[in-house]
Amino acid sequence: MSRIELSRAKSAPVPLGTLIGRELRNGKVEKPFVKYGQSGLAKKGEDYFLIKTDCLRVPGDASTAFSVFAVFDGHNGISAAIFAKENLLSNVLSAIPQDISRDAWLQALPRALVVGFVKTDIEFQQKGETSGTTATFVLVDGWTVTVASVGDSRCISDTQGGVVSLLTVDHRLEENAEERERVTASGGEVGRLNVFGGNEVGPLRCWPGGLCLSRSIGDTDVGEFIVPIPHVKQVKLSNVGGRLIIASDGIWDALSSDMAAKSCRGLPAELAAKLVVKEALRSRGLKDDTTCLVVDIIPSDLPVLPPIPRKKHNMLTSLLFFGKKSENSVNKATNKLSAVGVVEELFEEGSAMLTERLGKDFPLNKNSGIFRCAVCQVDQPPGDDGLSVNSGPFFSPASSPFLCTNCQKKKDAMEGKRPSRASITA
Ligand SMILES: [Zn+2]
């Protein structure tokens, strides 16, 4: 059982429908405000932001607005970071079916994020450039926060109960044994840099290439086992709101999640982002690009996030878990309090296996005889190369999503299978 499965087993995610039902019973659903601030100091100039607060789920319908925030920390050049900033969002959105309800849309997001990340990586690969980038991509729709991430730029949440949680996983070879195993099994070599006399220095890296990360967008020259498949986590904040801090490793190498959250509590987002950067620089100096985005999700009847109670919160939380059980008798005040610090986990998955992440229920339009690739969404009529890859005795539309030739090749390469090379040696 992987670590993620374990953590899921501990607290089973609550189905979105159940939550929405509960919210409706407790009163009207009001959309929170989203306020944000950004700050950054460049050392190498390879960090990029994406901020888009005017996205619409249904074109022309302002009530379906959602926001996207992302940090891209490039390495070995800036082209992958720029390419991801410009293409990732549209690649994610184009993988979500049209004309579906809000909760179906939110449920489709985790898979669409996987598709969008892989598609962006394939497209960048086709440009023939060699840089790579981390991508921490955060979508805020009402109280629901969905985070997809490759690399080591983190997103944390700080809720009104004073609970700080990490919404991403660090894809660093040094710190992630599961990823080391995967990379090694797929043909990569993991080790430290060798200097004169065979002394090993620095963090664990993947060779050839010497990358410290196990997942990224780009890095075509390092090896395909450095995959673009994101860890995805979807949570629902309580209706007292909370703060997200999205930042590159320049921040996280200097500050723990707790330190970053506490350094800026009580301040508006714009000021908070500046303070987190300042705090990181104070303790470590400007050693790397240091980029920070602060996103506040604020109840619509409040001007800013209310201050977090300092000491009493343990007692409060335990008291209020009682309040939560008697849902029928809540008045507005206790309803607000009962949700303090409670973040409901809706979804979490981090597997690096593409097929697992795409799931089994991809629609195939069999009547028209056209197969649509689950990743690049290109239609492929039967008889083309793509179909023949999947149409052998083991191809069953019910159990595996259809992939075109190109995307199938990418999938095999990510898993360390190299059919082209194997057929040469055979
Ligand atoms: Zn494809």
Automatic annotation (TrEMBL):
Keyword Oxidoreductase carried by entry: no
Family stated for the protein in its record: Belongs to the PP2C family.
Keyword Lipid metabolism found: no
Organism for this UniProt entry: Glycine soja (Wild soybean)
InterPro entries associated with the record: PP2C, PPM-type-like_dom_sf, PPM-type_phosphatase-like_dom
Pfam families: PP2C (PF00481)
Ranges for domain PPM-type phosphatase: 25-297
Cofactor list: Mn(2+); Mg(2+)
Name by which UniProt lists this protein: protein-serine/threonine phosphatase
